[in-house]
């Protein structure tokens, strides 16, 4: 479980959120929503230890690894790594033959579960937007995370590709019990894939059922 207790974050005099309280259960698939600048990324950075909270607490099992899937950026056409080697960047280097075999088996499994087996040799720079996004997801899975953070990972993808990616994440959530934090401005995907959302608004965070989400609430 991830629990925020009276969590406050300020940048200088600017209050991003103040005394917020919420819980995210293990294995939950929850949306994180709110207008631009509401504090969603700041929360993620605090969870990942990249930013310090100002006060209050985050209670979570720190043994639980977090996989972070950013929104794909344009990659140079001549970027040298193919998808498989891009994933392998997240492996620890080892000369131990048994560990190398295990690592290869892990990569095979992830390529299979993300439907990237046929694309493993595709240079990342030449992959489509959806393929790049799947490669980012596959790379995050190499760390065997318990928590997956999708940070606007569906933005700038075509609708059918968004659905493919989200179906894949839903499967990981159901089959492997991954906790998923889905940061998004997309109210339709929020409603389709999650039951509730943490709404960041005016320095507060509120848990709302997806039925309560209005079209323009966080766009
Ligand atoms: N390192 C920083 N120093 C100062 N202010 C910051 C810093 N990081 C973020 N902020 C400010 O904190 C507020 C929250 O930013 P944050 O990036 O968390 O918003 P967000 O909800 O993720 O927005 P978006 O939907 O646009 O990605 C913004 O006003 C932002 O300018």
From TrEMBL:
Classification via Pfam families: ABC_tran
InterPro entries named among the record's database cross-references: AAA+_ATPase, ABC_transporter-like_ATP-bd, Metal_Ion_Import_ABC, P-loop_NTPase
Keyword Calcium applies: no
Keywords, in A-Z order: ATP-binding, Nucleotide-binding, Transport
Coiled coil: none
ABC transporter domain residues: 2-219
Gene3D superfamilies: P-loop containing nucleotide triphosphate hydrolases
Key word Transport present: yes
Gene Ontology molecular-function annotations: ATP binding; ATP hydrolysis activity
Superkingdom of origin organism: Bacteria
PANTHER family xrefs: METAL TRANSPORT SYSTEM ATP-BINDING PROTEIN TM_0124-RELATED (PTHR42734:SF17)
Family stated for the protein in its record: Belongs to the ABC transporter superfamily.
Protein known as: ABC transporter ATP-binding protein
Taxonomic source organism: Companilactobacillus ginsenosidimutans
Taxon lineage: Bacteria, Bacillati, Bacillota, Bacilli, Lactobacillales
